[in-house]
Amino acid sequence: MSRRMYRNRCLAFLPDADLERLEQRLTPVSYEIGDVLLQADSPIDRIVFLERGLVSYVTRMDDGTSVESLTIGPDSAIGLMGGVGAPRALREAVMHVEGNGFAIATKDYLEAAEASPAIRDMTVRANTVTTAKLLQSVACNAKHSLEQRFARRILACSDASDAKRFALTQEQIADTLGVRRTSVTAAARALRDEGLIAYRHGRIWVENLAGLELRACGCRAAIRAEVDTLLPPHGAGAPKAKAG
């Protein structure tokens, strides 16, 4: 039987026999913008491997505001700390760009991992990807301009959704980047005036991918390199999911 091709890098990484261990227990899932996949300080009862879509890990502040800590798409998995025995989620995970994928109960994942060194290896590698993304995010927020970060965010959403057109409002971007809506509006207008993006009624189009890549910071390329090193697809024919 031919191997199913996955965009999710965790699933694409696994050898056939180990992938089959998970496939027997995977269930298809789909999510809309705003769906909560993990609640902070709540048990991690399942692990999600996105094929398309982007999730924001959100930190709630004392004043009631929230700031995004990092994003996860098809380049890793949501809730995978549960795969190493973490009892509770540290942060809330909210769907930022609608998408779909596969989910597995954490207890089933742990059983499969116990019988498979390859699954355990993938778990460590994917959690390392998540850590690398978090560290890169801290550096990006400290070093790069809002316009660079905004351009990177648009590219990340396009990569994760595998589309040049997707639903995303400027208010959502402002909330996740921790900046004022007016600042995001100005950044969006600048990129639109250069012919790099278009936007209307809560949707964004990437009009000039190469130009947008030039305006973004180098963090996207850095993360892609980490993902390619840590989670290379198994076999020459496996597709590569892009990282944001």
From TrEMBL:
PROSITE patterns: HTH_CRP_2. The keyword Transcription regulation applies. GO terms for cellular component: cytosol. Keywords: DNA-binding, Transcription, Transcription regulation. It holds the Pfam family HTH_Crp_2. It comes from the Bacteria. This is HTH crp-type domain-containing protein. It comes from Salinarimonas ramus. The lineage of its organism: Bacteria, Pseudomonadati, Pseudomonadota, Alphaproteobacteria, Hyphomicrobiales.
